[in-house]
Amino acid sequence: MKPEANPRFSRRTLLKAAGATLFVPHFLKRAFAQAAPTRPNLVLLMQTNGVNQANFWPANGSFTSPILSELLTDPVVGQKVTLVRGVNLKKTGNPEGNGHDWGFHGLYSGYDNIAKGADKFGGGPSIDQVLIKKLAFGNPYPSLHCGVHAADYRLINAGRVSFSCASAGQQLPCDLNLYSLYTKLFGSLVGPSEDPAVAAAAARRLAQRQSVLDAVAGDLVALEGRLGPAERAKVDAHLTSIREFEKRLSSQGMMMGGGTTGLDCSAMMPSQAGVPTTGQGNEVNADKLCRLFMEFIANALACNMVGVLTFQFGRGGEHFHYDWLNIPGMRPDFHDEIAHKDNGSDATAANVMVEVGKYHTTLITDLAKRLNSFPQAEGKTALDNSLVVWGNEIATGPHGTNGYPLVLVGGAAGKLARTGYVVNSGTQQHHRLGCTLHHIMGDPVAGFGADPTCGVLQGLELS
């Protein structure tokens, strides 16, 4: 249901209702920090191993496909989706590695990956890091890089741990610890603080399974009593979502203080010697973690806690087996025996690729619906004021780099003049994606990465 337009409800309204006597959690203040954002909160998602092209793109002028059906046919969020077809990887030098390495680092940086010893690293800064250095973000956290690495095999090369890079060869760590991220963003009453006592109090409260909301429950009841129906509904949406997320974290057995029950979400590094068997080192947790991360991302954006959030579904060239999907015909190594063999002559491989694509569509649809459930000023939702870019390290399983599957979800705070269609303006180089994102984020540039004059994506209607 579309929220009631109320352009006057903002952080000022919230604080006026609270007065000097009520304590409002920091994340709730941030949720209403601005009435009309000048640029969207940006999410960059990285999938691995490409897609089955024949079943990904809509055909015959339609706006649905076997893989994307759940997202595109949704009556609410489907018309806030834009597909960009025809984007090819354009190498500007002699990148090391293969298609996995090229796209994993190049899609969101515009630079070829480089060799460093036996490993392959990004050849330049990724757009998230470029933006936070060029633009002034008012969010408590200008950027976060996180992901799910719940893999039970040794890493092929260290360059595939993270696609976010500060500069050539300098990866940013991929934060795997969802409980720690939750504590950072939603566990403190006063927000980010360098005061050790404040941070310790937040960690202690959550370790004892006490929500930040418990500490101010009476004040929140009083606050809602001072607000009108429309304003109260907006506050309720945020408080309810955080409460539900906390319950799911607990029910999934996320690490709580010194003990765990089932799912250990500690920040293990699967690339270290040996193969971890718990938490982020155990694929049995991959589905749970992916779904919880989608919920976390929605809450983080809806509360305006993060300016640019980057997330990866695994590491570069991921070898997930997707056992939790129980797909007929799945082979022991999805990467080698399914993705690499999706070449048009293996019907079983194609079917498995389609089912894996549907799974990722389910995750993106859940993220979009959650963002759309948060009402914001002037009748908009958090989805209207966000832009989610769903990308992939390669176009096809056999290392194809032509026709990257690119899905834009959200209204981008009005920066997209039109949504709900397929951009199909012929072949375009991947640098144009980064240039376009710069424009959307309020930083008009002529080019991106290694191509200083590439221009924006043709056929995408910007305002």
CATH architecture of the domain at 36-176 and 267-440: 3-Layer(aba) Sandwich
Strand arrangement across the biggest beta sheet: 6-9-1-10-11-2-12
What average pLDDT do the residues reach?
88
Separation, N- and C-terminal Cα atoms: 26 Å
CATH topology of the domain at 36-176 and 267-440: Alkaline Phosphatase, subunit A
Order of SSEs: HHEHHEEHEEHEEEHHHHHHEHHEEEEH
State the name of the first-level CATH class of the domain at 36-176 and 267-440. Answer: Alpha Beta
Structural class per helix/strand content? alpha/beta
Q: Which residues form runs of ≥5 with pLDDT under 50?
A: 1-7, 253-277
Helix count, per DSSP? 15
Structure summarized in a few sentences:
By secondary structure, the protein is α/β, with parallel strands linked by helices. The chain contains 15 helices and 13 strands. The chain has helices spanning about 10-20, 25-30, 55, 70, 100-105, 125-135, 180-185, 195-205, 210-215, 215-225, 230-250, 285-300, 335, 345-370, 430-440; strands at about 40-45, 80-85, 85-90, 115, 120, 140-150, 165, 170, 305-315, 385-390, 405-410, 420-425, 430.
Features:
seven-stranded mixed β-sheet, 13 strands, two-stranded parallel sheet, 15 helices, single chain, Alkaline Phosphatase, subunit A
